[in-house]
Each structure stands twice: as C-alpha cells, then as structure tokens.
Design goal:
The structure holds two protein chains of two kinds. Chain A folds into two domains: 45 residues, no CATH class; 241 residues, Orthogonal Bundle (MetI-like fold). Helix content of chain A is 74%, strand content 3%. Chain A contains 13 helices and two strands. The two termini of chain A are 18 Å apart. Chain B has a single domain, classed as Orthogonal Bundle (MetI-like fold), CATH 1.10.3720. Chain B is built from 14 helices and no strands. The chains are: A mainly alpha, B mainly alpha.
Chain lengths: 307, 294
C-alpha cells in the first residue's frame, strides 16, 4: 500500500524525532486509570467470589467454590436465568425487526424523511432511567397512557393493572428496553443501508432479479455484517439491562422480572452478601462474554464470505 | 435511494405503505414522549381523568415552577416538597460531571489513541487489545471493589467518583474511534511537517487535530450522553448527586406528584436531546463506527 511505503520512508527520515518514551507518556494516564478502576476491581471480584466476606466483623475467609455451589443450587438463580432468557429473547428480536423496518423506511425518499430520521434519535438520547419512567406512565393502572388509549378507543371499559400480572410485567419491561434499543439498531442499519451502491440494484434489475431477489441478495447480504453487530449489542443488553427494569419493577411482582443483574444487586446491596454478589457478577460476565465471543466469531465468518 | 425500488406495481400502493410505516414510526417514538410532555403541563387533579385529556384543556407551568423553585405547588400535600429542592442542584451537578468527563476523556483518550496510531512500541498490541477487552466487561459487576477503592481515595459520595469512573469506562470506545481517525488522517502531511522541523506537538495541533474534528465531536457527544445518563454508579457511589438517581428517588416516594415528576424528567432530558439533535450527523457516524469496529 502506498501509505505504508510512504510512512516507511518517512519513518526513517524522522527517526531522531521519535523519542522512545513518548508513547509511554501519552499512554500512561489511560493505562494507569484503566488499571486502577477496571482491572484491579476485576481481579478483586474474582477473588471475592471464592470468599465469605463478613462485613460486621470485617473478616474475609476463603471458602473455595462454596458461593458458586450455593448459587447454582438456589432456586432464585435458575428463576433469574429463566426470566433473563425470556427478557433477552424480546430485547433481541423486537429491536432488530422493528429497527430493520424503520431503517428500510427511512432510506426511502418521501416527505417527512428528515423528520423521521431526527425523531428516530430521540429514544436513544433518553437515559435508560427515563425510558423506564416513560413506560411506567404508559402501563400505569390508574392513569397509564395505554389504558387511556384502549379506553378512548372503546376496547376496554376498566383500566387493566398490567404490571400486577407476572407475564405482562416481564413483557412490558422488555418492551421498554426494546423501545430505546430499536432506535440504536435502526440508526446502525440505516447508516449501513446508505452505503449500498445504487448501481447494484440497477444491474440486478437488468439481470431480471425481482424485488424479493434484490432484497435478499443485495440489501440483506449487504446488511448482514451490521445485522450481526446489532444482534450482538441487543443480546448483551438483554443480559446487562438493569436501570430501566429497576425503576419499573425492581424485580417484581414476585420475582417475575428478576434479571440476573437484579439478583446481583439484591445479593450485594440488600443482603450485603458480597461473596455471593461477586459470584453472580462473574457468572453474568461469563455469560455476556461467551455470547459476545460467539457473535464475534460469526462476524468474522460473515466478513470472510463477503469481503 | 430506494432499497426495494419499483417492485410494487403502482406508485400509489407504495406511497401508502410508506406513509403507513411512517405513522407507525411517529406513534412508536412519539406516543410515550408525548404522554410525558402533556402530563408535565397538566394539573395533578386532571391526571386520572377517564378518558384521559389527550390535549390538556388548561395547560399550566406550575409543575415546572415547582421543580425549578423546589416548592410544592397546587395542593401542597404531595410529600415530595423536600426532594424537589434537590432537582436543580442535581441538574447542575450532572452538567458539571458531563462536561468534565467530555474534556478529560478527549484529553486522555486522544493522547492514548495518538500513541497507538503513530508509534510502534513494545506491547502496543497487547495494551490495545487489553483496553478494548474492557468494553465487554459488565460495569455492574465491578461495583463492590470499586466502592472499596474509591473509599480509600476518599471519593465516595463526591462528584469526583463519578467523573473518574465515567471517564474510564468511556475511554476504550474513545481510544478505538479516535485511533481509527488518526490512522486514516494525513500521515504523510504530518511527517512532512516533522521533516520540515515542526515538533510533534505542532504537527499534531496544526495537521492532525483539525482533520480529526468530526471524530473528536462524535466522541465528545457520545461521552456527554453516557455521563449524563449513567444511573448505576451514581446510585451506588453517591447519594443521588446527579439527575438519574434522583429521578429514581422521586419514584420511590410514597406519594409522588407525577406531574411534577414528568416536568422534572422533561427538564432533565433537554440537554442530551438537544445535544443529540444538534450533532445528529456526527453522532450517527460515531455510533456506527464505534459499534461496527468495536
């Protein structure tokens, strides 16, 4: 590559300009802070998960795998895992599908497109905690907008306490997360759609490809790497969401919306069982990293096919 | 450009489908936000009306006044009087934290990105990979040891704790995006400047920085949004000093003045929404670059 050669010859010319220590000085603040604030807590969390931490007597004892054994034999953990898998299923599918529809819409030429594109950003610009509040107002049993809408349309004559129902509570907390994530997914997909060269479609049409064929072999093929990334982000959110669920239900009713992250919060900040909290953290971290790695592999494979 | 162009037989059908989909988009995005906005300008006694007033008959600014002055307005007996006095300070704190995080993040992240982009040195690949890996860690899971460290640094319940943690958690993304920008930018021009006798700093300031402005804006905007929105650390490391955890504490009050809460929420989302709209173009670019490459 031309730039590589250029930089090679120039690199020799400027050799004496480069002091060996410059990159280390430039990197020091980032590396030191990342080490102190992220890596050392990470190591500590792993160590905590093998310990029993007695906060009152300020004593830490090594107990091996006991926390994990207790966790995996507790009903609560499996319940949280089940809830979380259902939650993640909604958070993965809904934003990906609706986001794809919105992206396909907003790449069309029509009056209102720029308004649509601007509005699309709005949910993404809202903090998760606000998203949770908005959806609280939607599903509230006394004055919720959804109840109001159904009532105005004459579909119900009594307001429904949506969040008192275990299944509906899970669906609506997941939809709240899906709502904001839809915008994020659509933004990414729209950006990818805009890079498709127009003449691909023209060429396909000349070759007699129908609408379906063009969508499948051009649009979809082009979007595949971005779709994979969108899926990855949605899966990770499905397992790491906390804010919006916490403000909506705090895990309730019962344990109906108790995600693993909520379980982590309960162990750590309500039971003050730091060892168990750390064990949950590590399990959660392993789940998300495992899912992440699977997707990264998929991305590389799809890049291999198309690049 | 149209992706599924010309497949439908008549243009009319296509147009109708497009506008139907557009209406769905407007409803999907607009309905929850619209309900918050009308709630914020309603009198509390109107809230439970059946059917709801979709257009408030007597709009009022009382709720906003209540939040801004920190007093309970109509009725007065909503039990949230003292909490609301914390709203304006929290918004100020959020602003201070977010702006500081943007500046620190650009400075530290920019330096690191430049080092990765322009120098080859021992362990650079390992360090780069290590920094990027931290992006997959759930921040949630580090909270306990983080709390212990920050207590040792005497930073618990200070804005410093938030500035420090937010800056560091956004750093990997910043380094990633800025490095990509620096990599593609005018390396040859910069080296000519070096050969002509400019110092590295001069070459950076005169050649690289101006060309990297879109990337710098994108990263700045994204770190602003992150810092403004962050909830979990603010909840656990401070006593609701910033806007998001304070919203949560309103929510937990026994008797909530929902209308004032809607007003407080609206006020608090103005900064990120305005920033997002103004910098829309940079934001979309930064988001997709950060996501696709990260």
């Amino acid at each position: 590559m031309a730039t590589a050669e250029l930089s090679k010859s120039a690199a020799q010319a400027r050799k004496h300009w480069d002091r060996k220590w410059i990159p280390y000085v430039l990197l020091a603040p980032a590396l030191i802070t990342i080490f102190v604030i992220i890596l050392s807590p990470l190591v500590t969390t792993i160590a905590y998960s093998f310990s029993n931490i007695d906060l009152i007597r300020d004593r830490t004892t090594f107990i091996g795998l006991d926390n994990y054994i207790e966790l995996f034999s507790s009903r609560l953990f499996w319940k949280a895992l089940e809830v979380n898998l259902k939650f993640a299923a909604i958070v993965v599918t809904v934003p990906t599908l609706i986001g794809l529809c919105f992206a396909l819409l907003l790449v069309e030429n029509f009056i209102g497109r720029s308004i649509g594109r601007t509005l699309l950003i709005l949910p993404w610009a809202l903090p998760w905690i606000v998203v949770g509040l908005l959806w609280n107002w939607l599903v509230n049993a006394q004055f919720g907008a959804l109840n109001g809408l159904l009532y105005t349309l004459g579909l119900i004559d009594k307001y429904i306490p949506f969040m008192a129902d275990e299944d509906l509570a899970l669906v609506f907390t997941a939809l709240a997360s899906a709502w904001r994530q839809t915008s994020f997914s659509a933004i990414l997909l729209l950006a990818a759609l805009q890079t498709i060269p127009e003449d691909l479609y023209d060429a396909a049409k000349v070759d007699g490809a129908g609408m379906r064929a063009r969508f499948r072999f051009i649009t979809f093929a082009w979007l595949r790497p971005t779709l994979t990334i969108v899926l990855l982000y949605n899966v990770v959110l499905g397992f790491l969401q906390f804010d919006a669920v916490w403000i909506m239900t705090q895990g309730g009713p019962g344990d109906a919306t108790m995600l693993i992250s909520v379980l982590l919060y309960r162990y750590t900040f309500i039971n003050f069982d730091l060892g168990m909290g750390a064990a949950v953290s590590n399990v959660l971290g392993l789940i998300t990293m495992g899912v992440g790695l699977i997707f990264v592999r998929l991305i590389y494979r799809s890049q291999g096919t198309y690049a | 450009m149209s992706v599924i162009r010309g497949g439908l037989h008549s243009g009319i059908v296509r147009k109708i489908a497009t506008y139907l989909a557009f209406c769905c988009l407007l409803f999907w995005v607009g309905f929850p936000v619209y309900y918050m906005l009308i709630t914020s300008i309603m009198h509390p006694h109107e809230l439970g009306a059946k059917p709801p007033h979709w257009i408030p008959p007597e709009p009022t600014a009382d709720n906003y006044r209540e939040v801004i002055i920190g007093k309970s307005g109509e009725g007065g007996g909503y039990g949230s009087t003292t909490e609301f006095t914390r709203m304006m300070p929290a918004l100020l704190n959020s602003t201070f934290v977010s702006v500081t995080v943007v500046l620190l993040n650009l400075l530290i992240g920019g330096m690191a990105a430049y080092a990765f982009s322009r120098f080859s040195f021992r362990l650079s690949r390992a360090a780069y990979f290590g920094i990027l890996m931290t992006r997959v860690l759930p921040a949630l899971s580090l909270i306990v040891p983080l709390f212990v460290i920050l207590r040792k640094l005497k930073l618990v319940n200070t804005l410093g704790a938030l500035i420090l943690t937010y800056t560091i958690f956004i750093l990997p993304l910043t380094i990633w995006i800025l490095r990509e920008y620096f990599d593609t930018l005018a390396r040859d021009i910069e080296e000519m400047a070096l050969i002509d006798g400019a110092t590295r700093w001069q070459a950076f300031r005169m050649v690289v920085a101006p060309l990297a402005v879109p990337g710098i804006i994108a990263v700045g905007v994204m770190s602003f949004m992150e810092a403004w929105s962050e909830f979990f650390f603010a909840l656990t490391l401070t006593n609701s000093l910033t806007y998001p955890p304070l919203l949560m504490s309103f929510r937990n009050l026994h008797q909530v003045n929902w209308n004032a809460l809607a007003a407080a929420t609206t006020l608090g989302v103005l900064p990120p929404v305005i920033v997002a709209f103004v910098f829309q173009r940079y934001l979309v670019r930064g988001l997709s670059e950060g996501a696709v490459k990260g």
